[in-house]
Amino acid sequence: MLQPEFRGSSGYGDAWYVQNGFKSWKTAIGDITDGARWLEKEGIADPAKMAIVGWSYGGYAALQANVVDPALFKAIVAIAPVTDLGMMKSEAQNYTNSRLVARFIGDGPHIAEGSPARHADRFQAPVLMFHGDQDINVAIEESRTMDKALKRAGKSSELIVFKGLDHQLDDSKARADMLAKADGFLRGHLGMQ
Predict the structure, then answer these.
(1) Range 168-175 average pLDDT
(2) Which residues does residue 75 pair with via DSSP β-bridges, in sequence order?
(3) Helices 57-68, 25-41: crossing angle, 10 deg rounding
(4) Which residues of 85-95 are buried (b: 16+ CB within 10 A; e: fewer)?
(5) Is residue 153 part of a domain?
(6) 6 lies in a domain?
(7) Residue 110: in which H helix or E strand, if any?
(8) pLDDT digits (tens, 9 = 90+) for 20-36
(9) Domain of 167, in residue numbers
(10) 56, burial (CB in 10 Å: exposed 0-12, middle 13-18, buried 19+)
């Protein structure tokens, strides 16, 4: 397993941070795809069994990595992912941090380019998403939008909604269920039954 520290992480200096994980998504996602290719090149990972899993920004990165390199990952699991940068800005409009979110995400072509829900046609790998319906960090509409876009494009997508749970899915039963379903999904799509 490779777990890169994404470019939007603080505490690593300005050169690492770049502009953040959304404005500089090409660099951040490039780190992930480069890491996966390195694992293949070194013989550490079987390219036929390469999968990506992420939560929150990591879920965004898992989805966007498939937009960038559709053949690299054979299965995608995204938990409470951001799927559309413009939608995320809109979601924040009714909150006191709306100006911060707008500034953090910014404006420009990276909004459309860096929104996986707008590029569902590029997906090759099957997608499994999990989201709590009480999430105030990343609205459940992000996952619903992605799921609908993938299905409209004729892609394999499943969204599992946890009723009454927030972004953290702070319920041991729900987490155990999520892990079991993710495990089954990954084993099934990676030929590891």
Answers:
(1) 96
(2) 51
(3) 70
(4) bebbbebbeee
(5) yes
(6) no
(7) helix 110-113
(8) 567 677 888 888 999 99
(9) 14-189
(10) middle
pLDDT tens digit string along 87-138? Answer: 988 888 887 888 887 887 888 888 899 999 999 999 999 999 999 999 999 9
Q: What is the pTM of this model?
A: 0.90
Q: What is the dihedral of CA 182, 115, 26, 77, to 10 degrees?
A: 0
Mean pLDDT, residues 164-177 taken together:
97
| Nearest residue to 131 via CA among 123, 140, 142 | 140
- The 3-state secondary structure of 139-153 reads CHHHHHHHHHHHHHC
What's the total number of domains in the chain? 1
Is residue 8 domain-resident? no
Amino acid at 71: A
What pLDDT, on the 0 to 100 scale, is given for residue 3? 67
In sign, the C-alpha dihedral spanning 84, 138, 53, 190 is negative
Examine residue 7 and state whether it is found in any structural domain, yes or no: no
Q: Helix and strand tally (H, E) in the chain?
A: 8, 4
Beta bridge partners of 30: none
CA distance 144 to 191: 28
For 30-89, the pLDDT digits (tens) are: 889 999 999 999 999 999 999 999 999 999 999 999 999 999 999 999 999 999 999 988
The closest of 69, 58, 64, 83 to 5, measured between CA atoms, is 58
- CATH at residue 100: 3.40.50.1820
